[in-house]
Design a protein that fits this description.
heterodimer; A: 787 residues; six-stranded mixed barrel; 22 helices; 22 strands; elongated; B: alpha/beta; Rossmann fold; six-stranded mixed sheet; four-stranded antiparallel sheet; 10 strands; 27% helix; binds adenosine-5'-diphosphate; binds magnesium ion
Chain lengths: 787, 241
């Protein structure tokens, strides 16, 4: 090894603490980028491959009932490549040994063999025999959650008749990567299953012989999806069509899209923060080293090293720090990615579990890390290269402190000499002081933004479960029925309070803007399920128009009083124009509400319901569940207590893990910035401080000068951090906002206090580590060395 | 040109070299027109009070700095026509420097400090040989902090001679040393001058040291005041200051 390389490694090991502090900050950036970007690529690739192989459809539509003779007409639509017409239905399942009922979504399998689209991937056993009336294949997660193997039997209420069904096999499908039951907030593999049944058997059970009620299309490459959907809607219109939609509104796909968007915004937002701080720290440290090694740089040039070699020498020092950071970032990032993959495995059902991060992601993450260090070091390295050797050999001129207005102010303020030293130094290096504060402020901001998230979810849960949805159970009906049915629901065992609601699929339009949502009809004075505004105000369903959620109103660009047209997709498929009665801020879904009487008058029909909400006597829960299993025309039940519990469990786990990660990140940033800042203060002022010690200042007084400046900058950083944290939280809210949910911006004083406490504690710790060196400062040595 | 064959070969020659430092408020004439010759194989001492321009001149000769005006030749090569890149090559191949404050790299051992030069020079001796010449064979793996001032300066000398330079430029090599250790350093320089015939220039403001030189150049306010040739030279260990 050449002597210059030895110097490089020795300098690097001598600087290990500072280098490590920087490397860890860089590692954060690299690892988060690696995880989010790597997972983004992996998830995209895995999904695309699965879709391709199992022929996931492009367009989906359901309808009431259409004859099979319509299929050739669908096939003839321009741009349609393949058509799969199916029978689908839902059923309440009675699982052996379980009190609670489960919900099954039934899908027909053609007699001739596997379907043309959305091909289920067999995981065990075999598909149902086309001739057997009581055989089903179930989705693998449902089988696993309930401990089923081929041969097991459970009961289902198929269109009013209770039948035993034999499981012949298990499968996965690209349609159900994310499987969520009707009315559920979280996937519940135990309580919601997909059941594939042979077409003749399913058609017989649902009176669909020679007919279909569900169709999916694959389009040719150059097809115009909007046109195909319009043509299909027109074609299916007479058959009770619900309106066709593309992949963007297919539930499973939409959830994965949402996750991908989050990964993407994470990759764009967080790593730049770390890279920025790394640039600053590298710049500060290499700059200091070049200043310290002025004479050595002069010497290297005097003995014939070229400017390029000198420049590379200092770049290489930053390169070694980057290498450690990138290495740690790779290790950490791979681990994060693995953790995320395990988390995804809970939510997403892919047939292959390999979410491996591609080599590309490593190359890009490593390249970004190296570029970051290079950018940070280049200024100082170029300064070293440009330093004329004759100047380098001479001792540096003393820093250029000049009398200024500021000094006169200091004199007037009658501050102590140490305080004056601190303030002068800040004013002398304003950029460095500013960037130090900014770095620390970012640590505060990261904590504010992560703590905010927890508060926001609490607020969402409170609004969704304790303020709005106060029912214990929700019975979802297959078809709308007269509201007199509520009297029957009230007679169910344990039922205390009963309330009906109506949900209709509809397209809302204003000008050229349109959105497919469900319009909810509910009593004006509904008590179980209430419409609650963000400020806690209860709003009655309007009699004179439609109440829109804020996001929906925003998408349609309408305000109170503006007209919107509603095209109902069910029933008579009528279109009505109604005014916007008001706007309500809600966190979940895209809602449109009308008072049930008004809604039914609009549709010229007697009051109806599609959902019954009720509260239950806890003592009679089991009897209630038993009774529900035999009710005909029930598409599903949702037990809200169970949903809430599952939701909170999942969230709590994730919040704990992410809080640990964010605190670690903030502490790393704080320690990285504080340690380097104080360490450089010590290096720059060792002689001054030693002189003061010789003059009789105590270690405490000298420590005050050393740490005071950084302490002052830490304090400056707090309000700045609160501000940046608020901005960051707002950016996260905007980034995560989707049609499924909106995260409220909840910031309270505890959040700010907590963030500041963590950062203050971490910086105090880092400063003390350097401060300890003051006690061991060898006064004679410091004074003797020439600088 | 005609008498070049009789007198020793000229290694360095300058013509009207000036160096002006423009600090904004005042112009400092560090060199105010210097004409000099340094001859092959000779040990020349540059004497003069502090601030008289000795270091400035030495830096220009060694290609560390540019003259404001005038011309400088190393043998037939005109240094004042060279760019920074060529000067770097020139230093790498021909010049050995020794400074008052040793300028050792603190994180490298004695051997490695010398290797810093042997790594890049075209025809170097080994670091061990160079350190042996200055009498430091027993200190090869010591770091600068573990060496005395005189030893550090001798490492610096070893580093300067390890490339077998044509010229050795020493700026107050004994300036930071007491007279006894200073003598050891001067002896090393003297020995190198004798054994290798290396053209050597030594700056000092200790007048006694002039006695060991072939030639003495006296400086005053950026000018050459006088040039003397010593008929007899005194060995370093007989000098005291
Ligand atoms: N970089 C510089 N800027 C301004 N003046 C300088 C600089 N370097 C040297 N000088 C001035 O040039 C003069 C000669 O300096 P120098 O050659 O170092 O003298 P010597 O080595 O004989 O003591 C001095 O007056 C000194 O102050
Ligand atoms: Mg000098």
């Amino acid at each position: 090894m050449r002597a210059l390389e030895r110097k490089l490694f020795r300098d690097f090991f001598r600087l290990w603490a500072q280098g490590l502090a920087i490397a860890l900050v860089l590692a954060c950036g690299v690892s988060i980028f690696l995880m989010s970007f790597g997972m983004f690529l992996a998830l995209t690739d895995t999904r695309d491959a699965y879709y391709e192989r199992n022929r996931f459809a492009d367009v989906f539509a359901s309808l009431r009932r259409a004859p099979k003779s319509l299929i050739p007409e669908i096939e003839a639509i321009e741009g349609v490549y393949a058509v799969e017409a199916r029978v689908s239905g839902s059923a309440i399942l009675d699982l052996p040994g379980k009190v609670e009922s489960a919900v099954g979504q039934l899908i027909s399998l053609p007699v001739s063999g596997p379907p043309a689209l959305n091909v289920p991937l067999l995981r065990s056993g075999r598909p149902p025999d086309p001739q057997a009336p009581d055989e089903v294949m179930v989705n693998e997660p449902f089988a696993e959650a309930n401990g089923y193997v081929p041969g097991d039997i459970f009961h289902a209420n198929l269109n009013g008749s209770r039948r035993p069904l034999t499981i012949t096999g298990t499968a996965l499908s690209p349609e159900f990567i994310y499987t969520i039951g009707p009315g559920d907030m979280m996937p519940d593999a135990e309580g919601f299953g997909i059941l594939w049944m042979s077409e003749p058997a399913l058609a017989a059970a649902f009176d669909m012989d020679g007919a279909f009620n569900d169709v999916t299309l694959k389009l040719s490459r150059d097809a115009n999806i909007e046109e195909v959907i319009d043509t299909l809607d027109a074609l299916l219109d007479p058959y009770g069509a619900q309106g066709a939609y593309g992949r963007d509104q297919q539930v499973s796909n939409a959830f994965i899209d949402g996750e991908l968007r989050q990964l993407q915004s994470m990759a764009y937002v967080l790593p730049p923060v770390f890279f920025g701080i790394t640039v600053f720290l590298v710049n500060m440290v290499i700059g200091r080293i070049v200043a310290l090694e002025r004479a050595e740089i002069g010497l290297m040039k005097a003995i014939g090293y070229s400017d390029v070699e000198v420049c590379l020498h200092y770049l290489a020092l930053a390169g070694l720090i980057a290498a450690v950071g990138i290495g740690a970032g790779f290790a950490l990032g791979s681990w994060f990615a693995h953790w995320l993959a395990v988390l995804y495995a809970n939510f997403f059902n892919f047939p292959y579990l390999i979410f491996s991060v591609s080599a590309d992601a490593y190359v890009i993450a490593g390249g970004l890390g190296a570029a970051t260090a290079a950018i940070g070091a280049i200024r100082a390295a170029l300064a070293a290269a440009r330093l004329p050797p004759a100047v380098a050999m001479a001792p540096p001129a003393p820093p250029n402190y000049k009398q200024s207005l500021f000094d006169r102010l200091l004199a007037l303020a009658r501050l102590s000499q140490p305080t004056i030293m601190i303030l002068r130094n800040i004013v002398r290096w304003p950029l460095r002081a500013g960037l130090t504060s900014l770095g620390l402020a970012l640590a505060v901001a990261v904590l504010v933004a992560s703590a905010f998230f927890e508060d926001a979810l609490d607020e969402m849960i409170d609004a969704a479960f304790y303020k709005s949805n106060r029912q214990d159970a929700m019975l979802i009906l297959t078809d709308e029925v007269r509201d007199t049915a509520l009297a029957e629901v009230a007679r169910l065992p344990g039922a205390l309070q009963v309330e009906g609601a109506q949900y209709y699929g509809a397209v809302l339009r204003s000008g050229h803007r349109e959105k497919r949502v469900s319009v909810e009809g509910r009593p004006e004075a509904a008590d179980l399920v209430r419409i609650v505004d963000a400020d806690g105000r209860v709003i009655g369903a309007p009699r004179d128009g439609v109440l829109l959620s804020k996001r929906l109103a925003g998408q349609l660009e309408v305000g109170p009083g503006d007209p919107v047209t509603i095209e109902f997709l069910g029933g008579r498929r009528e279109t009505h124009e109604v005014p916007v009665a008001g706007i309500v801020t809600q966190y979940l879904g895209l809602a449109a509400y009308m008072e049930t009487g008004t809604l039914n008058r609009l549709m010229r029909q007697a009051p109806r319901i599609t959902v019954a909400n009720l509260t239950l006597d806890p003592a009679e829960r089991d009897a209630f569940h038993m009774a529900v299993k035999d009710i005909p025309g029930l598409a599903g039940t949702v037990m809200l207590g169970d949903t809430l519990e599952a939701f909170q469990d999942t969230i709590e786990q994730n919040i704990t893990i992410s809080t640990i990660i964010y605190v670690a990140i903030a502490v790393l940033i704080t320690v990285g910035v504080t340690y380097n800042s104080v360490r450089i203060q010590l290096s720059e002022r060792a002689r001054d401080l030693a002189s003061l010690r010789i003059l009789g200042f105590t270690t405490g007084e000298v420590s005050y000068i050393l740490i005071g400046e950084t302490a002052l900058l830490v304090l400056f950083a707090q309000p700045l951090g609160w501000f940046l944290g608020t901005m960051l939280a707002a950016a996260m809210v905007a980034g995560f906002e989707s049609d499924l949910y909106t995260i409220p911006l909840v910031l309270n004083r505890d959040t700010f206090t907590w963030a500041s406490c963590v950062v203050l504690a971490a910086s105090a710790g880092a400063a003390l580590i350097v401060g300890r060196r003051l006690n061991t400062l060898n006064l004679i040595e410091v004074m003797k060395t020439r600088e | 040109m005609a008498n070049q064959t009789q007198s020793p070969q000229i290694v360095f020659r300058t013509e009207g070299v000036t160096k002006v430092y423009d600090t904004g408020e005042v112009k400092v004439f560090a060199l105010a027109g210097v004409d000099l010759q340094l001859y092959a194989g000779e040990l020349t001492v540059l004497l003069g009070p502090s601030g008289s321009g000795k270091s400035t001149l030495l830096n220009i000769l060694g290609g560390l700095d540019h003259a404001t005006e005038g011309r400088v030749w190393f043998k037939d090569i005109e240094l004042t026509k060279m760019g920074d890149r060529q000067l770097t090559r020139f230093r790498r191949e021909y010049v050995g420097f020794i400074f008052q404050f040793y300028n050792l790299v603190a994180s490298l051992s004695a051997r490695e400090n010398v290797a810093l030069v042997t790594d890049i020079a075209p025809n170097p001796m080994t670091p061990e040989q160079a350190l042996d010449i200055v009498g430091l064979s027993h200190r090869l793996d010591h770091f600068p902090a573990e060496l005395s001032g005189g030893e550090q300066q001798r490492v610096a000398i070893a580093r300067a001679i390890a490339k077998r330079p044509e010229v050795l430029l020493c700026d107050e090599p004994t300036g930071a040393l007491d007279s006894k250790t200073g003598v050891q350093v001067l002896e090393a320089l003297d020995r190198i001058n004798r054994e290798f015939g290396t053209t050597t220039a030594v700056i000092t403001h200790a007048a006694e040291i002039r006695k060991m030189a072939h030639r003495v150049i006296r400086f005053q306010d950026g000018h050459i005041n006088a040039v003397e040739v010593n008929e007899t030279r005194v060995a370093p260990h007989e000098i005291e200051w």
